[in-house]
Specification:
Blueprint: E1 2-6, H1 10-21, E2 25-29, H2 32-41, E3 43-47, E4 52-54, E5 58-59, E6 68-71, H3 78-89, E7 93-96, H4 103-107, E8 116-121, E9 124-129, E10 132-137, E11 141-144, H5 159-168, E12 174-176, H6 180-192, H7 195-200, H8 204-207, H9 211-230, H10 243-251, H11 254-266, H12 276-282, H13 293-302, H14 308-323, H15 329-336
Helix pairs in contact: 9-11, 13-14
């Protein structure tokens, strides 16, 4: 299967490198810095599976039509890369990998809906420098058809999804679902706390060793649950994150849930783990905060519901992006203290 991975960042670089290493016919599409670094020095992956150096072809734009194009850019960059490469993407299967729930809708503006497969990435990686990726932790890769409605057997009569799943299963365990949207909404909760280390400029492990920051994390989830419940959205369990875990943590006394959450987050990876929002900020690029915590704010606004905390955190991330200065833990707590009582 001819595969093009569009985006050479943390997820794109990791996926392309592993696919190529497993013998798949994979190429990378990346920005100029990645293009030059990988052409000169190959692609370097370190972390949970050891050190790996992969020789892979990389281009600034597509030069042929792949059977599968994996979009591994940020949500806000989808339109640009599709328009740049539309000539070669029209007949390809398109796999979205972005956080949030907007990627499939944005892709469908240019690509036939029947060509689009949505996915949820449950493994973690960090972009160090152009061509250098750290694989932080393992996880499933969840695939589904975003515009096909619910299906009890998502592989039935779907040869393209079956073939794509077989290829991707060589590098990560693939799970197919007929309820991808409900799972993507639950993944918003998984990612929603990444804004806190991003505002502080710290790794997950550093940020969530502070129990007050973990208390704030529980408030993010509690507000998010209130919003999706009132909006009538049904959350669906993820293989690596059952809905019951979210419901149990948010129902416990705040101090107790904060301690449990701290233990989970500080032990996610033996390498420093930086969320996608902070990685973008460190690269002086716009983050995807509007497509994560901003989803709660947008949903609340559409349904006449308050989203004070998530809206405040979206604004704080944008403040960090504009001002190029991270907040101290005390500054973050001062800016959100009304939500911790």
């Amino acid at each position: 299967m001819k595969i093009a991975v569009v985006g050479a960042g943390a997820i794109g670089g990791l996926v392309a490198g592993y696919l190529k290493h497993k013998g798949e016919d994979a190429v990378l599409i990346g920005r100029k810095d990645a293009f030059e670094a990988i052409r000169q020095n190959d692609l370097h992956i370190s972390g949970s599976r050891g050190d790996l150096k992969v020789k892979i072809d990389i281009f600034l734009r597509l030069e042929h039509s792949p059977q599968l194009a994996i979009l591994a850019v940020k949500t806000q960059d989808i339109a640009e890369v599709i328009k740049e490469n539309l000539k070669y993407l029209k007949s390809a299967a398109i796999l979205t990998t972005q956080n949030g729930i907007q990627a499939d809708k944005l892709t469908a503006r240019y690509i036939p809906k029947e060509n689009i497969i949505s996915s949820i990435v449950m493994f973690g990686s960090t972009y160090l420098d152009p061509g250098k990726i750290v694989h932080n932790f393992e996880g499933n890769w969840i695939l589904g058809r975003p515009f096909a409605g619910k299906s009890l057997n998502p592989l039935a009569n779907d040869g393209a999804l079956k073939e794509i799943s077989a290829s991707l299963n060589k590098i990560f365990p693939v799970v197919t679902t007929g309820e991808i949207l409900g799972m993507k909404w639950l993944k918003v909760f998984v990612n929603a706390n990444n804004c806190l280390p991003a505002i502080l400029g710290k790794s997950m492990q550093e940020a969530f060793s502070n129990l007050e920051i973990c208390r704030l994390s529980m408030r993010i989830w509690q507000e998010g649950l209130s919003i999706v419940d009132k909006a009538g959205i049904k959350l669906i369990s993820l293989p690596d994150f059952p809905l019951e875990r979210l419901m149990k943590l948010t129902s416990l006394p705040l101090d107790e849930s904060a301690k449990i959450f701290s233990g989970i987050m500080t032990n996610l990876s033996r390498h420093p783990l930086y969320g996608s929002i902070l990685q973008s900020i460190k690269r002086n690029r716009p983050s995807e905060i509007d497509y994560i915590n901003g989803e709660f704010s947008a949903l609340a606004k559409a349904n006449g519901i308050s989203s004070g905390l998530n809206e405040r955190l979206v604004n704080l991330v944008h403040r960090v992006e504009r001002g190029k200065r991270f907040l101290t833990e005390q500054e973050l707590i001062e800016n959100t203290k009304g939500f911790l009582s």
